[in-house]
Every structure is written in structure tokens, then in C-alpha cells.
Amino acid sequence: MFQLFLKTQMKFFGLGMILLLLIAAFISSIIFGRTPITLDHAIGAFLYYDSSSIEHMIIQTERLPRAVIATMVGASLAVAGALMQALTRNPLASPSVFGINAGAIFFIVIAVVFLSISSLVYVMWFAFLGAAISAMIVYLLGSIGRDGLTPIKIVLAGTAITALFISLTQSVLVLNETGLQDVLFWLAGSVSGRTLEMLLPVLPFMLFAGVIAMFMGRAINLLTTGDDIAKGMGQNIFIVKISMGIIIVLLAGSSVAVVGAVGFIGLVVPHIARAFVGNDYRWVIPYSAVLGAVLLLSADVVARLVIMPREVPIGVMTAFIGGPFFVYIARKGVSKI
Question: What is d(CA 39, CA 23) in angstroms, rounded to the nearest whole number?
Fold first, then answer.
């Protein structure tokens, strides 16, 4: 009993430490960039905003929205990745690997290029639709066959659907080059130039899905023991899986609608979280949310500084981190989620 209590307290302590790391990353996101910002300027911009101060204006109109968006999107993608890995029992599962991001981007391109939709609210619904259709296709393809859903089949299905949607997106843009500038906003995968007004339409979906995910830890733990055991314990696995699927689509679709295609956050972060707390999803999910925010904030800061005064797209930075990690996980062959 005492050991269990001690382990729980250590997990709370670890969560507190990464929350402090999140605060440090958030402050760094506000301070570091092409225009030097001091900590005094940052504090002053919130306590006594001066519209004549260039530093205060940069903080309020650019740095703060950028930090808030990176925090929310990083947390959302990481939680979506954790749920996908639990749902499919596949260590390589993530919104980017399974075609959810590519599907959302394709439908955004259709909305912007062919339907001339510019309102983020409508774009958001197309992103959700694309994410949902892609997820359903991958899940169905991965379930075909006598042995049902297996990690290798779902990875192959996800890779194929990702390639399909990327090809379709490129074909649309080749046929309609005038629409390229309109969709570069999402194709680039960046938090640069985003505003809080762009986050607000999808924020309720992010918060709702994130909160529900936090309360599903016990049900997910039971699901990961296997369908037969979960059924024997009285769990309605159909409801749990559908709920997880909806949460994944809401988190991934809303993230893509705001920042475009940012990959590998959902792949890398859940593994880091499980390294701290094991396979207990009551802890994996909150740890993933905080670590995802930290990773995307840190990637954004590095993207600004590495070739300053220019910026590296944040999608490139996350790929630089996640690509080798993907190869490592694939070679290691982790099977227990």
C-alpha cells in the first residue's frame, strides 16, 4: 500500500516538474525571436500594456497567440497519438502516420480551391470530415482479413492512405495553381502568423475532447488488456472505441484546421510519457498533453533561432525529431502499448 502511495506521489511530482517545464517553454516562446524581448518587457506587456511600445505590441499580437496555439495544438496532437496507439495497440500510430492529417489537409484544399471557402469555421468542418473519413478508411483496411486488425496491417493501410491523400492534394494544386497561395497557409504546417481569432472556433472542440480523454484513462486501461477481457469485465468496447475515435478526430482535425500538417508529435510524445509512468493511461494522457505542448513550443523556438532572421517551418523541426524516432520504434518492434 505504501509503495503504491509513493508511486502515485512520484507521478504527481513528475507532472508538476513538466508543468514547470511547460511554463519555461511558454516564456521562452514569448521572449526569443527575431526581435529581442526581455523578461521585463514580457511582464510589462501583461501588467501595463503600452500601445506605443514595439515590444509590447509584438508580444500581444504575435508572440502570445503563437505560444497559446502551440500549447493547445501540441497537447491535442499528443493526446490524439496516445489514444490512437491504445486503440490500435500499435506503437507507430499517430495522426500523421495514419493519414488523418493528410486527409484533413486534402479536404481543406478542396474547400479552399474549389469551393472558395475562406472562413476558418467552415474550413474546420472540412478538416474534421477529412480526418474522420481517413481514420475510418484506415481502420477498415487494417481490419480486413481473417486475423482482423493487426499493427502491421494498419501501418500499411495508414501509409497507403497518407500517400493517396498527398497525391490527390498535389494533383488538385497542379490543376489549379492559382489556389496554391491560398492553401500554403495549411500545407506549410506552422504556428507563425496565426492569431487567437483562428484558434477560438476550434478551441471548444479541443477542450471538450481533451477533458473527455482525461476521464477515459481507466476504460482505456481495460481496453488495452484485450477485447475478450474487457468484455468479461463488463465494458462496452464498441462505445469506448467509438468515443476514442471521435476524440481523435476532434483533436487532430481541429489542430490541422489551425496550423496545418505538423507531424510526429502524436508519435513521439506518448512513448516519452510511458517512459515516465508506464502504461497506465490515467497518467499517460495528462503527461502526453503537457509534454506535447512542451515539445511543440520548444520546436517553435528552435525554428525561429536556427537560421535567424528567417524561420524553419515547424513541421520540418518536428520531422527532424520524429523521423529518427519513428525508425527507432519500428526497428525496436515495441508491441506492448
Answer: 13
Domain of residue 108, residue span: 64-192+201-332
206 contacts: CB under 8 Å, gap ≥ 6: 72, 76, 250, 251, 254, 255
pLDDT mean over 203-219 = 95
- Whether 46 maps to a domain, the answer reads no
Between helices 203-214 and 64-88, what is the axis angle to 10°?
Answer: 40
What is the rounded distance in angstroms from the CA atom of residue 268 to the CA atom of residue 290?
A: 13
Summarised one tens digit per residue, pLDDT across range 25-79 is: 999 999 988 888 888 888 888 888 777 788 888 888 889 999 999 999 999 999 9
CA distances from 277 to 3, 10, 128, 315 (A): 15, 9, 31, 28
- Cβ(259)–Cβ(194) under 8 Å? yes
Instruction: State the pTM of this model.
Output: 0.89
Q: What total number of domains does the chain contain?
A: 1
Q: What pLDDT, in 10s, does the model give residues 255-281?
A: 988 888 887 899 899 999 999 999 999
How far is the C-alpha of 176 from the C-alpha of 52, rounded, in Å? 43
Is 28 inside any structural domain? no
Cα-atom radius of gyration of the chain, to the nearest Å? Answer: 20
Q: Do 138 and 99 meet the contact criterion of CB atoms below 8 Å apart?
A: yes
Map grid coordinates 503504491 to a residue.
Answer: 4
- Confidence at residue 330, expressed as pLDDT on a 0 to 100 scale: 65
Query: What SS3 state is found at 226?
Result: coil
CATH number, domain of 147, equals 1.10.3470.10
Q: Are 218 and 282 in contact (CB under 8 A)?
A: yes
